[in-house]
Amino acid sequence: MPPSTPRIVVPIELKKKPWEQKLLLHNRWHPEIPPVAEVKDGELFRVEMVDWTGGSIKDDDSALDVKTVDLSVVHYLSGPIRVLDKEGIPAMPGDLLMVEICNLGPLPGDEWGFTATFDRENGGGFLTDHFPSATKAIWYFEGIYAYSPHIPGVRFPGLTHPGIVGTAPSMELLKIWNERERDVEENGLKSLKLCEVLHSRPLANLPSTKGCHLGKIQKGTPEWERIAKEAARTIPGRENGGNCDIKNLSRGSKVYLPVFVEGANLSTGDMHFSQGDGEVSFCGAIEMSGFLELKCEIIRGGMKEYLTPMGPTPLHVNPIFEIGPTEPRFSEWLVFEGISVDESGRQHYLDASIAYKRAVLNAIDYLSKFGYSKEQMYLLLSCCPCEGRISGIVDAPNAVATLAIPTAIFDQDIRPKASKVPVGPRVVRKPDVLKCTYDGNLPITKNPSAMS
Description:
The protein is an alpha+beta fold. The protein has helices spanning 64-67, 171-191, 222-230, 302-306, 352-367, 374-383, and strands spanning 7-10, 28-29, 37-40, 45-49, 77-84, 96-105, 112-117, 135-142, 145-147, 155-157, 161-166, 232-233, 237-238, 241-243, 254-258, 266-272, 282-287, 290-299, 320-322, 333-339, 387-392, 400-406, 434-435. The N and C termini lie far apart (64 Å).
């Protein structure tokens, strides 16, 4: 017998706001957010989702929506979904939940996405001290390919994936998250050297009632007020999976998620048509609405069997995933190195983040020689299928990171040549990305040796 059509367990109506959907969405992690649907082990089911901003960013000719976006409301997630075995017994704490991505894509009628950088006063990005202004590029999809009128001369196939797939935390795990992230927020600037370089980024996003959506829990009730003050933001990846932004978690992939509450309470969202390793501009993939067709399998007792805690409790574990069999194939790459020396010339000890920042900056400056603005290349490196690597992490004092860019995505040869870089109006790529002014007062990093 052929398999049945996937059952839609979380439908989305594109013309409705997140809080108007038939099954209410949520944007926090908490064990008491009630499930909106139920599935069984081995069942093929479909989950639809809005883009991570819930439609706040528009397909228009302005980046003002990016500059003023309310980040307290993100990410809008579909779920939670309660998972049962074939006998109707729910997944239990200590189990592993295998989630297989059988199919995925944009929602029909909504085949477009966006890449952006936030204003430095509103979240910034990996290179926010170099690029403080809000910017935006719109992408349109032609089957497996994406192109943007704001970054002309570039076209590539997408490795489409969900940015967020995760299970609900237990109250014990939620307490661990909130305590350690509060410590970073309160003490990070005093103790974390990295903050001196990637400065002005929020150190953490602590629980907040502002912008909070808790699914079926009614806003304004005592229950809502209590849970909203405890519920974790969805911004970082954690032990439950969550916002890991792994571009290879695509069609055919399997992810093995730890289960912390009865039923697992699986949630997903933040669909990406394509993303580069690191998603460096922060709003940096090609963000879109979309769907997943999934199958689950409960591995009883799998946490203890397969996951070794890397911390003081059995809850300090992380998911495992398998890469699917389908992804874009590129045979030629241009690779940029970076070392752990910052733009001021200061040495950092084996700091892979500084090394990767340097690699990304090197790539942006190089590619801007071929007729592009640096803003265009910053957004491109955030969303095209580039490969980031920690290449060296032992040879003191310099960590070495690399960023590999597939040369085939460009309509010109970007390799160094004896004939030098082409110059003149014919190679200037217009129009530029949509851009706002930066009106803040935070200091900006300028590299005196780089081209303007």
